[in-house]
Specification:
Blueprint (H helix, E strand, L loop, with lengths): L3 H11 L2 E7 L6 E6 L2 H10 L5 H4 L4 E8 L2 H13 L2 H4 L1
Antiparallel strand pairs: 1-2, 1-3
């Protein structure tokens, strides 16, 4: 059974993922996120289906995305972007 754990873990990581940025207006609030289903996730933000930061600040403008081979790489990229100065994100 122990041999199955790495295989299951590998299947979860191999999935494509996206890092994306949303805003509410030019020079407004920015949101950086990660998802494995980009179209669904942007729709959730725009419809306000999920309560949280993006709904509170009305973040509906999809301004940027990057595709990554694994979820781990997408999360690393998200963390890097969040550390950038605001001017670099615009």
């Amino acid at each position: 059974m122990a041999g199955l754990v790495p295989a299951i873990h590998a299947l979860q990581i191999i999935q494509m993922a996206w890092t994306y940025i949303l805003t509410n207006r030019p020079n407004g609030t920015l949101y950086v996120g990660v998802t494995n289903e980009l179209i669904r996730r942007v729709h959730e933000h725009r419809s306000g289906a999920v309560p949280g930061f993006s709904k509170r600040y009305d973040l509906k403008r999809f301004v940027y995305f990057e595709e990554h081979e694994t979820v781990v790489l997408a999360i690393q990229r998200e963390r890097n972007i969040k550390r950038w100065p605001r001017a670099w994100k615009a």
